[in-house]
Amino acid sequence: MNAFDFSILQPPVTGTNHGFVRRAMDITVACVAAAVLMPLMLLIAIALWLEGGWPVLFVQPRLGAGGRLFRMYKFRKFAVRCESGGLALTLADDSRMTTIGRVLALAKLDELPQLWNVLKGEMAIIGPRPESLDFAECFRDGYEAVLQYKPGLLGPAQIFFRREALFYPRDVDPISFYKEVLFPAKARIDLSYYSRRTIVSDIGLIVRGVFVVLELGLPRLTDRAAFRMSSELIRKVRTQIMRGLSGP
């Protein structure tokens, strides 16, 4: 299955109501996860402090439901001096990452502080990943419908692009590649799922997301496999552009 096999939902979804049952599920899962993982989060914070000092958290404005901004929390992956400015993407073998940061990125443990965002109601357990302001311009031509859903920790696009950092070809500008290839691919996946999501399907995604993060019974994505997948995405984009230029 390819990300571009999904079609954009038309007409765009209206309203940002998350629903009482889904919100109750978010609070329950976030509370249980925070209680179970608190010792691990404390160890991560101490390790980051010993490695590079304060701060141990990375805080950044992100686009939430309805395009509203909120402050998203993550464990710091980069050296302290690299936290302001620089490339808005994390690439494979990124020189800005610390030793502990690489481990956190590999296991997705840097996302754990977002449980606080979930408890505050700014994020959900299941939802599209919140984009940084660097990519706000991508929400157009139908993709703005993604902003009708509360952003989340897990989701179909996050599962599909589990190793997103490996998708960037070395001879292509990463920002352009994300805007023109990866963002549309993820938006299509999200819009296809969230237009007909159910509580049961969200629970299934939570279970599947845990398996994907832990890589239980799943093949590891290699550099070569990621390159083949990114090349296929590029071909799909070029085909769509040509079709749009040639008209109906």
Textual characterization of the structure:
The protein is mainly alpha-helical. 46% of the residues lie in helices and 8% in strands. It has seven helices and four strands. The protein has helices spanning 20-52, 99-107, 114-120, 156-160, 174-194, 199-214, 223-246; strands spanning 57-63, 69-75, 124-126, 152-154. The protein has a two-stranded antiparallel sheet with strand order 1-2. A hairpin with a 5-residue loop joins strand 1 and strand 2. Helix 1 runs antiparallel to helix 3 (114-120) and helix 5 (174-194) packs across helix 7. The protein is globular. The two termini are 26 Å apart. Residues 1-14, 217-227 and 244-248 have low confidence and may be disordered.
Would you kindly provide a brief summary of this structure?
With 248 residues, the chain is mainly alpha-helical.
- Average pLDDT taken over every residue: 82
Radius of gyration (Å): 18 Å
Structural class: mainly alpha
- What is the CA-CA span between the terminal residues? 26 Å
Major sheet: size, sense and barrel closure?
Answer: 2 strands, antiparallel
Helical proportion, percent range: 40-55%
Widest beta sheet: strand line-up: 1-2
- Poorly predicted ranges: 1-14, 217-227, 244-248
Helix count equals: 7
Strand content: 5-15%
Q: What is the helix/strand order?
A: HEEHHEEHHHH
**Which word captures the global form?**
globular
